[in-house]
C-alpha cells in the first residue's frame, strides 16, 4: 500500500481522483481505496500550551510519516483509509487537540461513511487519541510514548482495546506514568496493555525497527473484527498480564 506525501499545497491524492482539503479541515487523507472498510489515523505530538498554527512540516508531524508507512505494510493492499489528524494549534491547550481528533473522526465519516478506526498517537497525540477513544468509530488505540499526566482520565475506556509502547530511556514523557495509566484503564474495564522498549527514547529513533515492527503488528491486530487469540496484543492485554512487557 502506498502512502502519498503532500507537497506545500497540502493536496491529498485519492485512488480514482483527487481532493483538496482546506486549512480548516482536521483530516488529511494519505490514501483512500475505492471501497474503504476501515481507517488508520496518526496523531503527532505537540506542546502543553501553544496557540501557534500547526504545520505539516513541523518535526512532530514529520516524525509520524514513517510510522504510517510502516503500519501500511502490515495492512491489506486495499480497503484501509490512511490519514492524519491536523491540529489547529501546536499545543494541547486544555484539550483542544483532542477536540481536533473528534472533528477528524466526524470528517472521516462524512467522506467515507461509518468505518472502524484505529488511532495511532505519539506523545501529545497519544493523549489526544486516548481522550477520543470512547468515540463509537474507534476500534482501538496505539499510544507511542504518550504524555499521560497523573490525573489523566481512564474511566471512559471501558471495553476499549488499547496498547501503549514506551521507551525506558524516555526523558520527555514518563514511562511510569504510562504504566500507571494502563493499570487504571484496566481497573476501568479497558483491555489495556503496555510494552516497554529497552533503551528507547522519546523521539523513537533508537531501536527504530522495533517501534515500527510492533506498531505494524499491533495496528493490524486492533483492526481485526475479532481479537487474535495469540500474539503481542493478546499477551499484553490478557487478564492477569504484568503491568508491562519488556522487549
From TrEMBL:
InterPro entries xref list: AB_hydrolase_1, AB_hydrolase_fold
AB hydrolase-1 domain location: 40-191
List, in alphabetical order, the Gene Ontology terms for molecular function in this entry: hydrolase activity
- Looking at the record, which segments are called Disordered? 1-24
UniProt keyword annotations, A-Z:
Hydrolase
Database matches in Gene3D superfamilies: alpha/beta hydrolase (3.40.50.1820)
- Ranges of Basic and acidic residues compositional bias? 1-16
Output this protein's name. Answer: Alpha/beta fold hydrolase
The taxonomic lineage of its organism, from the top, reads: Bacteria, Bacillati, Actinomycetota, Actinomycetes, Kitasatosporales
Amino acid at each position: 500500500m502506498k502512502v502519498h506525501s503532500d507537497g506545500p499545497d497540502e493536496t491529498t491524492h485519492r485512488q480514482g481522483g483527487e481532493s483538496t482539503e482546506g486549512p480548516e479541515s482536521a483530516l488529511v487523507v494519505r490514501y483512500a481505496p475505492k471501497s474503504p472498510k476501515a481507517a488508520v489515523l496518526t496523531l503527532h505530538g505537540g506542546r502543553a500550551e501553544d496557540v501557534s498554527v500547526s504545520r505539516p512540516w513541523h518535526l512532530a508531524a514529520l516524525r509520524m510519516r514513517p510510522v504510517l508507512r510502516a503500519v501500511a505494510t502490515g495492512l491489506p493492499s486495499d480497503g484501509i483509509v490512511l490519514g492524519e489528524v491536523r491540529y489547529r494549534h501546536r499545543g494541547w491547550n486544555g484539550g483542544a487537540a483532542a477536540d481536533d481528533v473528534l472533528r477528524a473522526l466526524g470528517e472521516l465519516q462524512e467522506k467515507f461513511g461509518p468505518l472502524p478506526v484505529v488511532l495511532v498517537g505519539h506523545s501529545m497525540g497519544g493523549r489526544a487519541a486516548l481522550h477520543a477513544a470512547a468515540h463509537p468509530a474507534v476500534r482501538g488505540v496505539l499510544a507511542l510514548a504518550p504524555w499521560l499526566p497523573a490525573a489523566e482520565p481512564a474511566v471512559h475506556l471501558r471495553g476499549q482495546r488499547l496498547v501503549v509502547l514506551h521507551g525506558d530511556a524516555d526523558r520527555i514523557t514518563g514511562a511510569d506514568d504510562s504504566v500507571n495509566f494502563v493499570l487504571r484503564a484496566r481497573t476501568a474495564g479497558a483491555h489495556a496493555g503496555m510494552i516497554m522498549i529497552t533503551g528507547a527514547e522519546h523521539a523513537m529513533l533508537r531501536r527504530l525497527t522495533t517501534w515500527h515492527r510492533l506498531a505494524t503488528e499491533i495496528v493490524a491486530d486492533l483492526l481485526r473484527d475479532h481479537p487474535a487469540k495469540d500474539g503481542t496484543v493478546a499477551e499484553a492485554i490478557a487478564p492477569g498480564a504484568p503491568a508491562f512487557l519488556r522487549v
